[in-house]
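Please go through this protein, sequence plus C-alpha cells, and consider how the sequence yields the C-alpha cells. Keep your notes short.
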Amino acid sequence: MARATSSAPKGPARWKALDKDLKRISLLEQATTFVARPLVAPGIALAFMVLVGAAALGFTGIQAGTFVVVVATVVGAYMALNIGANDVANNMGPAVGANALSLGSALIIAAVFETAGAMLAGGDVVNTIASGIVSPELVQNSNIFVLLMMAALLAAALWLNLATYIGAPVSTTHAVVGGVVGAGVMAAGASSVHWSSMLGITASWVISPVMGGVIAAALLAFIKARILYTDDKLAAARHWLPILIGFMAGTFATYLALKGLSSVTSIGPFTSLLAGIVVGLASWKLSVPVVRRQSTGLENRKKSVRKLFAVPLVCSAALLSFAHGANDVANAVGPLAAIVHAVESGSVGGEVGIPFWVMAIGALGISFGLMLFGPKLIRLVGSEITKLNPMRAYCVALSAALTVIIASWLGLPVSSTHIAVGAIFGVGFYREWYAERQSRALGELQNRKVRPPEERKRRRLVRRSHFITMAAAWVVTVPIAGALAALLFLILQQFMA
C-alpha cells in the first residue's frame, strides 16, 4: 500500500511566498527612495529661501515696504543658490578632475572660501551692479526702480536655473547684467542704460577668457620648460615650485590687503603691494623645506613632479573661490542692495549701502547652492573638456584666480565662468600645439610623413563640442535674460505697482 504524502511544502519551499512578498516590499522601498532623492536638494533650497524671507522681516526696520523687501530677499537667495550651483563648479572642477581633491572636500573648501570672499571683499562690484548699469535718476520713482531690479534678479535666476538643469555652465554675470539692461530699457527707455559702462563690461567678457587662457598656457609652458623636460626633474621642482607658491601667496595677500582689510582700516596700494611681497617671500622660504621633504624618495619621473603640485593646486583653488565670492556675490545681492536702499530712503540716487545681512544672504546662498547642486557641473568642467592632472589644473586655477582678482580690483563684474573655462581651454589647446610640434619634429627627424588631417583630428586633446555648446550658451544668455526681465517687469508692474 502506497504511503500517503503531505501536501504541505517542506524546507525552504514553505518560505518562498513570504520571500517574494518581502522582495516586493524591498523593491518598493528602493523605488521610493530613488524617486524621493532628487527632491531632497530642492526641498532644502526651498527651506533656505523661506528662512531667509523670515530673517529679512527681523533685519529690516521698514514698515511701508516690508513685503517688497522680503520678496526681493527671497529672490536674491534664489539667485545666490543658482550661482553656487553653476559658477562655483568652475573653481573646484579642475582640482576634482585632477584627483587632487575628493568631491566632498572640494565642496567644503569652496563653501568656506566663497563665504569669506563675499563677506570680506564683495562691496565694490556690488555697487557696480546696483547703480553702474542703469541711471537711477532717469527712472520715474523708487517703486519703478524696485520693480526694475526685482525683474532683473528674477529673470537672471530663472535663466541660470534652466542652464544649470541642462548642464550648461553659463555666466551669472551675463545673466544679471542682461536682466538689468532689459528691465531698465522697459522701465525708462534705452537712454537710461550706461552704454559706455556696458561697453567696458562687454569688452571684459571677451578679454577675460582670452587672458585666462593665455596665462594658463604660459604657466604650463614655463613649467614644462623649467621642470618637466629637464634632466633632473626633482631638482628643478625643488627650485621652482617654492617660487610659484610664493608668487601665489603674495598675490593673495596683496588682494586681501586691498579688498578685505579696507573694511577695517585704510590701506593704500603701495602698502598692500609691500605686504604681498613680504608674504610671498616668506611663503617661498617656508615652502622650500616642505617641497624638499615631499620630494624625498620620489623617482625622477614626470609622475613624481605632478604629485608635488597637488597641495599648491588645492591652495590655488581656495584662492580662486575667495576671489569668486568677492566678485560674483554682486550678481545676487547687487539688485537686492539697490532695492533695500530705494525702499529705506525712498529715493533711487546716491551711493548704495550694503547691509551686512544682505551680504550674508549672498554668501550663504552661494555656499548652499554649491553643496546642493554643484557636483554635476564640477564633474563636467573638471573632466569632460580636456584631461587634467595636478600640474595642469594648478595652471588653470592660478590663472583664473589672477584674472578674477585683477577684475575685482578694478570693480569690473567679469564672468568667472568665462575665465576658468577659458583657462581650461588654454591649457588644452597648448597641449595640442605642443604635441603637434613634437610630432612634426619627430617626423622630420626620422624622415616620416606628417600625419594626415583625419588622424590629427582624431588625436585632438580638447573636446570641440563642449566649446561650441558653451560659446552658444554664453551668446544667448544676455538677450534671453534681458527679454525675460522686460516681460517680468511688465507683469510685476501690473501686480505690485
Notes: Confidence is low (pLDDT under 50) at residues 31-36.
